[in-house]
Amino acid sequence: MDSKAEILEETLETLLKGEGLEMREFDSVPEQVKPVILRKSVCYIVSGVIFNSKDEVLMVQEAKRECYGRWYLPAGRMEERESILEALQREVKEEAGIDCQPITLLMVQEQGPKWVRFVILAEEKGGSLKTTAEADSESLQAQWWDRESPLPLRAPDVLPLIEAGIKYRRNPSFPTLKPVDLPCHVICQRLFVTFISSNGSNEPRLWLLLSSNDATPHPSLPIAVSVDTYNTIPWAAHRLIKECIPSSSIHVQTCGILGVQHNGRIPGKTDGICFNMLVLLENLEDGAEISSPPPLEGDAYRWHDVTNPSLKAKIIQRIKEKSVLPVQSL
Questions:
Q1: Which positions fall inside the Nudix hydrolase domain (predicted)?
Q2: Rg of the chain taking only CA atoms, in angstroms
Q3: How many other β-carbons are positioned within 10 Å of the β-carbon of residue 307?
Q4: At a CB cut-off of 8 Å and minimum separation 6, what does 217 contact?
Q5: Is CATH 3.90.940 what the domain over 3-36+185-329 is classified as, yes or no?
Q6: What is the C-alpha to C-alpha distance for residues 109 and 86, in angstroms, rounded to an integer?
Q7: Average pLDDT, integer, range 73-82
Q8: CA distance 59 to 85
Q9: Residues 243, 28 contacting (CB under 8 angstroms)
Q10: Which of 82, 97, 168, 226 is most buried, judging by how many CB atoms fall within 10 Å of its CB?
Q11: Contact present, 105 and 118 (Cβ < 8 Å)
Q12: Topology agreement, domain 3-36+185-329 and domain 43-170
């Protein structure tokens, strides 16, 4: 195996482990891109799903005027210079009075690049529940909820998040995943674009879309920037595929997230996020089995045939079992 193939396989293994890679030149940019700025051009929310030994979930009573007295998961906006996990620990401490240890990201929800919520499963690690005597502008009190007793909720959107936490604790559908501390100045996706073909045998072939970017000396996955305020984050993958594959019979399926990269230490310069996204292309045409991936337009990208049996099996398994962090466009 040559050195380039070895580097590519190492890259793919790194991403499959939920780890990160340093940013490089972008491949798909629809217009001039400016760095995102936290709480100005982007808003990141953290929300904690925390259970006790009785399977009760941590809830806080709101102090905000518009939802005063109602209950919600501990949650809030990230602040400057915070990591995603630091923001969670701060919010849980301020609103619920307890210390927590993050276990894994559970879900990413978004309304386009301007609003992203990170739902995180965590566990209690000390402190004590906030009482009404400690009420402040952050919350009125906190309590463990058995999910059966009546509780006036601020909004029902927390119920699927709690259910996701319950399911993950019982049967994890993807490996534990925490954000990786790597800087990025925009919101973008490193696209792990796959195509599975059959040549009539029982053994499928797995193809991977690679960038032909001259600025990168080694084989690399394409990176697409999210800039449209109104389009959802996964739309960047659709835009890139439309750029390089003119066929209208290709369906783009965003499977989910393999990793999240964020730093945020330098306000206005590292407030961006890179999502390492697993994507599957499917041919919708009826008829004979497809033995090769769809032809590409131009020379900006190329297809790579993944021949390492172990790596290929690992990728296909992640696709079939949907073993990825879910991303929801609200």
A1: 41-166
A2: 22
A3: 12
A4: none
A5: no
A6: 19
A7: 97
A8: 18
A9: yes
A10: 226
A11: yes
A12: yes
Higher pLDDT, 78 or 287: 78
Specify the DSSP class assigned to residue 69. T
CATH class of 43-170: alpha beta
pLDDT digits (tens, 9 = 90+) for 207-244: 999 998 765 667 899 999 987 766 788 888 888 999 89
C-alpha distances in Å from residue 73, one per residue of 62, 101, 147: 10, 16, 12
Domain regions of the chain by residue span: 3-36+185-329, 43-170
Q: Are 34 and 22 spatial neighbours (Cβ–Cβ below 8 Å)?
A: no
pLDDT digits 0-9 by tens, 163-192: 999 999 999 999 999 999 999 999 999 999
pTM equals: 0.95
Q: Token digits for 212?
A: 């032909």
**Three-class DSSP category at 320:** helix
Query: Is residue 1 over pLDDT 60?
Result: no
164 φ, ψ (degrees, to nearest 5): -65, -40
- Six token digits for residue 11: 């890259």
Give whole-number Cα distances, 112 to 44, 228, 235, in Å.
Answer: 11, 7, 9
Residue with tokens 């049967």: 171
